[in-house]
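Before a colleague's protein record goes any further, I have to sign it off. My question to you is simply how this chain folds and whether the tokens agree. I do not need a full report, just your reasoning and any doubts. This is what I was given:
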Amino acid sequence: MVSAGQIAEIIDGFAPFDSAEDFDNVGLLYESGRETSGILFALDITAETVNEAVFRNCGILVSHHPAMLGGITRLRFDDAVARAVKNDVSLIAAHTNLDRARGGINDVLAGLLGLSVSGVFCEDIGRIGVLKEAMSPEDFAGYVKARLGCKAVFAVLGEHAVKTVAVGGGSYDFVRPAQDAGADALLTGELKHHQALEAKSLGLTAVAAGHFATENRGIFALRQHVEKQLRGKAECFDSDRGTDPLSVI
């Protein structure tokens, strides 16, 4: 059995909460006060993942995205946070601190592409590395789609072959930092219209593979770390109900 405070301490050692961006809301968001033998890891705190935690008898739900980012002005009885409180499920979030952490979201993303990581960019949040072989922008977009298991990607096709790649999951404004870091291409979760236009003007290949696809496996890497530290004191689970809310039609 473990407490939410103990799990938060383990996570803090892996991805320090004080390394998160100023706007972020990470750490122990709700503490039920009870110990548990089960911990669920999911990208998001939703009604579905809270229900999954209850079904699996997990008293702690660890997520990447905070449920209370920007503050809560009102709650319904069936909201995710209300469900967690009613069912004594403690909530812990590791967000931009996990993006930045060694072995966190963006290191996992670089690993999925098979990059030889050579450094960081965008205030240490993103990673930059080299592919084994150069490929055309079109082939790189298809490579990303295959490696991440995406149903679709959005791509700005650049002006030259792709060898050096910058990766940053989620929805940061990575375009100019990637260009300044010497990347031929950027892989990220989301591209706003003005960011896509900027990439095109720079001749930079930019692939948006979706918020979920670029970050989901990173939270499971955190699960592996926590699991090793617990040494059998509690069981850890990867969520199978936390899914991408977007569909390709």
Notes: The chain has a mean pLDDT of 95. The longest helix spans residues 211-230. Residues 4-98 form a domain with the Udp-n-acetylmuramoylalanyl-d-glutamate--2,6- Diaminopimelate Ligase; Chain: A, domain 1 fold (CATH 3.40.1390.30).
